[in-house]
Amino acid sequence: MPQLRVALAQVNARVGDLDANAGLVLEQCRAAHEAGAHLVVFPEMVLTGYPLEDLAMRASVVAASQAAADALAARLAEEGLGDLVAIVGFLDQATGVAEGPGIPKNAPQNAVAVMHGGRIVARQAKIHLWNYGVGDEIRTFVPGDVLQVVEVRGVDVATVICEDLWRDGIASAVRAAGAGLLVVPNGSPYEANKDDVRLELCRRRAVEGGVAVAYVNLVGGQDELVFDGDSLVVDGSGTLLARTAQFVEELLVVDLDLPAARRLTPPEGTRFAGLRVERTVISSDPVAPYEPVPSPILPRLGDHEEIYRALVTGLRDYVDKNGFRSVLLGLSGGIDSTLCGAIAVDALGPERVFGVSNPSEYSTEHSRSDAAELARRTGLDLRTVPIAPMVDAFQKALGLTGLAEENLQARVRAVVWMGLSNQEGHLVLACGNKSEVATGYSTIYGDAVGGYAPIKDVRKTLVWELARWRNAYAESRGEQPPIPENAISKPPSAELRPGQLDTDSLPPYEILDGILDAYVERDLSAAAVVAEGFDAELVERVVTLVDRAEYKRRQYPPGPKVTRRNFGRDRRVPITHRWREHLADD
């Protein structure tokens, strides 16, 4: 059987930075060439970054992407890399498509370019557009209908892009086209436990298509999305041959024994699973036999470490890709802000993290000491700005009482943070968790203020779990745990009135999070939630809180998606509506 050395370039691209992304591709092609690869495959839309969203419909962006792809192909040859076959994701344009209803402006396509010998020798557009969850590609792309098969050193290689692999029927088309290798460029966002699903999908498609599958994915953060890499290769029987680490850039090099090209040429007009097959011969002569190099199968991260790394990656790239120098957050000594502080230090280093303690009349001593202890353990910068005099000044003018008075304290704190942000150039972090965001248990223009929310998609019970995991991870490495034990063990409180606890306003979090999982993430009706064993009166109260808080969530900062359904791109509920989940209606 012919041999082929394939390289998968798991890289972190920046949306809209075509020059930097082209440089990244060139650098990885050099490394692949030095490793003796015959074929190198890059992730989906690597040249433009992904997702482009509505930028994809700008004629200037389409033209720039096409020009960058042509220039990159030529540059590869100039650099002595012309014999290397590179499959590079980019933004292309459909031809012969008239503008009209349902056609995105300027007919953009999510495509790959096959580069060899200084030029683009074949192109293929994504066939099945991702249009569920956080995907919205029907809005921005025109689908393709061609399956390209390119012969590389005597092996037929087919390509499908991300969502194409998830659709039944694609494997039968690949089998009918006679391909021996299926490469899959991806921009597949992270969510918990998705790596297990991906591997099983690749195994299934490999067996169905009778082909080896090489799956390469992006890494890095892009607004609400985090890409975890997790690139892998399976053979035609579904056996895992190689796998990268998660959340890091990596070039995976794999030696494959593959069937010789069958050079099937279907009659004109023949379609497989609705696709037209096109063949391009790049090189027919097999490579001389060589000794394969071993390929790594790197272990998966544990569940808590995986989520924690996603949060760190999302924060780091949001800060760096948007050009912020540092971050600032209010540190109350509570578990939410403490975990955010630890994440920020892991993402950016302590010299770029600034905490502010804002004790009020009702702040306990341990809230101050726990914040100070976090600063001591992590090395972040902490300053104290008491807010009692400021609150008194407002009270003299306004005379607020009850909830309005409590929320005033949170809003005064936010004024301090934003003032320091404007003065010193920090990005303010909002430290609310998913349970609070779901129920509206956060003060709008108060603790909800900021430019990024690191744990927005992390339920409260998981916040504690991640804090315990982070401390245990430090201990396993002989390091001091970053999170003070008291921040984990004490009952949560907003400390806006004497003796206040979260349970004064919300059910215990272990119960609340179960209801939220059913109602928010699994979209069950109130009656179905009750059927899972929750108290009916409590369910109705919680779903009412969730429904009424939508206007607050729309004003909450973005944060990294780690669950199956985040508040933001995943869950799109009108602010203004009269539907209410009452048990009597079910």
Structure overview:
This protein is of the alpha/beta class. Helix content is 37%, strand content 19%. Helix 1 packs parallel to helix 2, helix 7 (303-321) packs across helix 8 (335-348) and helix 10 crosses helix 11. It is elongated, with a radius of gyration of 26 Å. It starts with a strand and ends in a 32-residue tail after the last helix. The mean pLDDT is 92.
Strand content: 15-25%
Helix content: 25-40%
Instruction: Extract low-pLDDT stretches.
Output: none
Tell me how many strands there are.
20
Rg result? 26 Å
> Which whole number gives the mean pLDDT?
92
Structural classification:
alpha/beta
Summarize the structure.
The protein is built from 18 helices and 20 strands. It is of the alpha/beta class and 586 residues long.
